[in-house]
Design goal:
five-stranded parallel beta sheet; 20 helices; single chain; Beta-Lactamase; about 675 residues; alpha/beta
Length: about 675
C-alpha cells in the first residue's frame, strides 16, 4: 500500500514510517502540505496521513486542495496530530472531508488497527463517491482562524515559558559563575579578558571582576617561555586540563595555578578567544615543597647519621687511648702534652659528629621542663663574647615564664648557632635582637604557612641587620655542609643543627629574609604545664674503681680492647662478648657473678636492644649501660630514661666511662 505521510517533525515521520513499513507499506514523505500536494499528484498514493498544523501549507489547507482535485479527491485522508482547541480541529477536519482524526501519540499496534478500520469503512462506499460537505468559505475561515489562533496562543505561551526558563537559567548561571571557588574567565581573539568571575579577580589580587576587563591575559605569566609553551599546547590540542602555570598576582606575589581551558571558534573555524577555569594551588604547592624539603633533609640526615656513627667508633679509639695515656703519664712528663693534644683533637671531632647527629635528630636528649627565659638569660655573657664590638646585642624577654619540655644545653646550642650566624651576616656595624614571647598557633596560621599544630608556644626570635639571604640559599639553608661562607670560616652545620634540635623538641623553625634586608629566625616550642626545673652545673666527682664483674659487649675489637683495659686498670673483672648473641650466652653462664652489663647499640646477630631484652628475662634486676653512636640504635624510639637505663654517647673518654660504671653499681 502506497502511503503518503506529511509532517514537519522528522522524528514523528520516522516513527510513522517505521510502523507502516513494518506492515509492508511503501512510504512517501513530505515535510508540509505544499510538498505533500506535489507528491500526491505525482505518486497517487493509496492513503494520505497528515499532521494538522505545519509551515507553508498546513493539513487543513492541504486537505481542501486534495478534495478539490478530481484525481486525488477519492484518496482516504487521515489526520494524525495533537489537538489544541479540543474538538474544533476534528470538526474542521471532518467538515473538509477527512476520513478520520487520530490523536497523537498512539501506540504503533493501536495506530495500525485504527488505519485498517478506516480503510475498511472507506471500502464500503461502493461508488467511491464521497458525500461532500459543503462548507461556506466564511464558516471555514472562522473555524480555521480559531484553530490557528489557538495554536499561536499556545506557541506564545510556550515561548514565554521558554523565556522564563532561559531567564531562570541565566540567573542560576550567573549565581554559580560568581559563587564558584575556582576562577572562570573568557578572552577575545586578542587574549584580552571579556568576562571573569569574583574568584578569578580574588586569585589575582583584584577587588572586582570588572577591573580585569580589557587587560591582557598574557601579562600575568611569570615566565614568557612557559606562556608560549602553554599557548602552543592549547593551539595544538584545542584544549588543556589541569595545566600547571606559574603566574603573578597584581602585587607581584607568585601564584601556582592549574588551568583547564578551550579554544573558542566561530562557525567558520576562526579563533574567537579562550574560555577556561583557574584553580589556585599555591597553598598545595607550598605544602608539597615543604614535604620534598623535609624528605630531602631526612635523607641527608640518615646518611650523615650513618657516617657519624662509624666516625664515632674511630674517635672512640682515639679519645680512649689518649685518655689512657693521660692517666698513665705523669703530668710533668714531656709526652703528656702530646696525649693532651690528641685528646683535645678527638673531642673536637666528637663535637662535630654530635652536630651531625643533632641535625639528623639522632642524639639522646635529657628532656626536662625548663623556662626558656632562664636558658636565654644564662647565655647572656657567652653570647656577648661571641659577637664583635661593632655589633649590639639586645634582649627582650617575655614577662612571664615560658616553660617548655627541653634539653637546656641543646636549646642553648640553638641560640648560640643563631647568634653566630647573625654575627657572620653583619659585615660592619649592626645589631642582633633576641626576644621571647607567648604565641598562640591557630588554624588560620597553619593554613597560611602549611605547618604546625594548634596550641600555645614559646616563641624565640633572633633578628639581625645583616646581608640577608637570597631565595636560592633559603631552599638549602637547613641542609648540612651547605654554606655560603669562605673556606675555613664555617662547616655548614650550624643551621642544620638548629633545625634538627628544634624538630627533636617537637617545634618548628621559620626564616624570613631577603638579600640585603636582614634575617629573622623564629623558633616555636610547645609549652608544657609542668613546673620548670633549675638548671644545675655538672659535677666532676673523683674517679674510683671496684672489684665487680662487668660483661662488656662490643663488636669492634679495638673499642672492646680499649674499654676492657680501662675497666681492668681500675680493678674490675671483665668478661668480653663479641656480639649480641655472645653477650646473652655469656650472661646465662655467669649471671651470678656479673653485676653490670655494658652493651653497644648496634652489633651483629643481636642488636643491643634484643640482647638486653633476653638478659633481663634471665635476671630482671641486672644493671645495664648502653653505649652507642646515636639514640636510634637503642630502644627503637622508647625512652631510655623511662626504663631507668643509662646511655653514653660515643666517643666515651675513660673518665666518663669509669664514673658511669661506678655510679650505676652504687645505686
Amino acid at each position: 500500500m502506497k502511503t503518503l505521510i506529511v509532517d514537519d517533525n522528522p522524528d514523528d515521520r520516522l516513527m510513522l514510517k517505521t510502523n507502516l513499513e513494518a506492515h509492508n507499506c511503501e512510504v512517501i514523505e513530505a515535510a508540509d502540505g505544499m510538498e505533500g500536494l506535489e507528491l500526491a499528484k505525482k505518486h497517487k498514493p493509496t492513503l494520505i496521513i497528515s499532521d494538522a498544523l505545519m509551515p507553508r501549507m498546513d493539513g487543513f489547507q492541504f486537505l481542501r486542495k486534495v478534495r478539490q482535485d478530481m484525481e486525488l479527491k477519492a484518496i482516504p485522508f487521515v489526520f494524525y496530530s495533537s489537538t489544541y482547541t479540543g474538538e474544533k480541529e476534528v470538526e474542521l477536519a471532518i467538515s473538509l472531508g477527512a476520513d478520520a482524526y487520530i490523536f497523537k501519540p498512539k501506540e504503533p499496534v493501536e495506530f495500525w488497527a485504527e488505519i485498517l478500520k478506516i480503510l475498511d469503512a472507506c471500502a464500503l462506499k461502493k461508488d467511491r463517491q464521497r458525500k461532500e460537505t459543503i462548507l461556506q468559505e466564511d464558516e471555514y475561515l472562522r473555524i480555521y482562524n480559531d484553530v490557528v489562533t489557538t495554536k499561536l496562543e499556545e506557541k506564545i505561551k510556550e515561548l514565554e515559558k521558554a523565556k522564563d526558563c532561559a531567564e531562570e537559567s541565566r540567573r542560576q548561571y550567573e549565581k554559580l559563575f560568581d559563587a564558584s571557588l575556582d576562577g572562570i574567565y573568557s578572552t577575545d581573539e586578542n587574549n584580552r579578558f571579556v568576562q571573569t568571575n569574583s574568584a578569578f579577580a580574588r586569585i589575582f589580587g583584584y577587588d572586582r571582576p570588572d577591573e580585569l576587563l580589557g587587560r591582557s591575559a598574557l601579562d600575568f605569566w611569570a615566565d614568557k617561555e612557559a606562556r608560549n609553551r602553554y599557548l602552543e599546547t592549547l593551539q595544538k590540542k584545542r584544549g588543556v586540563s589541569s595545566y600547571p602555570v606559574h603566574a603573578r598576582k597584581r602585587n607581584g606575589a607568585e601564584l601556582f595555578l592549574e588551568i583547564s581551558s578551550n579554544i573558542v571558534e566561530n562557525d567558520d573555524g576562526r579563533f574567537m578567544g579562550i574560555e577556561g577555569i583557574v584553580r589556585d594551588v599555591t597553598g598545595r604547592e607550598k605544602l608539597e615543597e615543604q614535604l620534598r624539603h623535609a624528605q630531602r633533609l631526612e635523607g641527608i640526615g640518615q646518611l650523615a647519621g650513618g657516617v657519624a656513627h662509624d666516625f664515632n667508633n674511630v674517635l672512640n679509639a682515639v679519645v680512649g687511648y689518649a685518655g689512657l695515656l693521660q692517666m698513665r703519664l705523669d703530668k710533668f712528663d714531656p709526652l703528656r702534652h702530646f696525649a693532651d693534644e690528641i685528646s683535645a683533637a678527638g673531642m673536637r671531632g666528637a663535637a662535630l659528629t654530635q652536630q651531625i647527629l643533632a641535625f639528623g635528630r639522632r642524639q639522646v636528649l635529657d628532656m626536662k621542663p625548663a623556662n626558656l627565659n632562664d636558658i636565654v638569660k644564662g647565655l647572656d655573657k657567652m653570647l656577648h663574647r661571641l659577637i664583635r664590638e661593632d655589633i649590639s646585642l639586645d634582649m627582650k624577654l617575655f614577662d612571664k615564664d615560658l616553660v617548655v619540655l627541653a634539653d637546656a644545653s641543646q636549646l642553648g646550642q640553638v641560640l648560640i648557632n643563631l647568634v653566630t650566624n647573625a654575627r657572620d651576616a653583619i659585615a660592619q656595624v649592626g645589631s642582633i635582637r633576641i626576644s621571647t614571647e607567648l604565641f598562640v598557633m591557630d588554624e588560620e596560621y597553619i593554613a597560611m604557612y602549611g605547618y604546625g599544630e594548634t596550641g600555645e608556644y614559646a616563641l624565640l626570635t633572633v633578628s639581625d641587620t645583616g646581608c640577608g639571604i637570597d631565595t636560592e640559599t633559603k631552599e638549602h639553608i637547613f641542609e648540612p655542609f651547605y654554606t655560603t661562607k669562605e673556606v675555613g670560616k664555617g662547616t655548614g652545620l650550624g643551621l642544620a643543627v638548629v633545625h634538627g634540635i628544634v624538630k627533636q623538641h617537637s617545634g618548628y623553625v621559620s626564616v624570613d629574609s631577603e638579600a640585603g634586608q636582614g634575617t629573622t629566625f623564629k623558633i616555636y616550642l610547645p609549652l608544657t604545664e609542668h613546673a620548670a626545673e633549675k638548671i644545675e652545673a655538672g659535677s666532676s666527682a673523683p674517679i674510683s674503681g671496684g672489684t665487680e664483674t662487668v660483661l662488656l659487649a662490643e663488636d669492634d675489637p679495638s673499642l672492646r680492647k680499649l674499654s676492657a683495659i680501662m675497666l681492668r686498670d681500675f680493678g674490675y673483672s671483665v668478661i668480653e662478648a663479641v656480639d649480641g648473641e655472645d653477650a646473652v650466652r655469656k650472661f646465662a653462664d655467669y649471671n651470678d657473678e656479673i653485676k653490670l652489663v655494658i652493651l653497644d647499640g648496634i652489633m651483629p646477630k643481636k642488636r643491643g636492644k634484643e640482647a638486653y631484652e633476653d638478659i633481663i628475662l634471665i635476671k630482671p634486676e641486672i644493671r645495664v649501660i648502653f653505649v652507642s653512636g646515636y639514640s636510634e640504635d637503642i630502644m627503637g624510639g622508647q625512652s631510655l630514661k623511662e626504663k631507668g637505663l643509662l646511655y653514653l654517647s660515643k666517643p666515651v673518654t675513660p673518665s666518663v666511662l669509669l664514673r658511669a660504671v661506678r655510679e650505676v653499681l652504687d645505686k
